[in-house]
Input
Amino acid sequence: MNFFENFWDIFWWLFIFYAIFAFLYAVFMVIGDLFRDNELSGWWKAVWIVLLVFIPFLTVLAYMIARGKGMAERSMARARKSQQETDAYIRSVATASPTEEIAKAKALMDAGTISAEEFAQIKSKIVV
Output
């Protein structure tokens, strides 16, 4: 065997491995989308699953063609919802509550760092 035969054998093996991985990823994306879709009835979901079991490649291809746009829309909606929930959580954790801000300002006033007038200004900004 020379080097090029081995190289193409390795290349072919990597290509096959990538193709199988991509196919399995597509199958799991289809299955996940099937179970997340609220518009599709249980019977149609069962039909798609049975078809995935018996003729997987053709079924994945047909699903992507027939329901690909809806699949993308559901995925984007799920991503948007997740981002909004993450942003809301970060806002709730990152910002101090008004009572904490007033307590910090009171501690600064007690330490003599700020005057009573400055404390009143900070308090009025927080309370509003």
Notes: The radius of gyration is 29 Å. Residues 56-94 form the longest helix (39 residues). DSSP finds five helices and no strands in the chain.
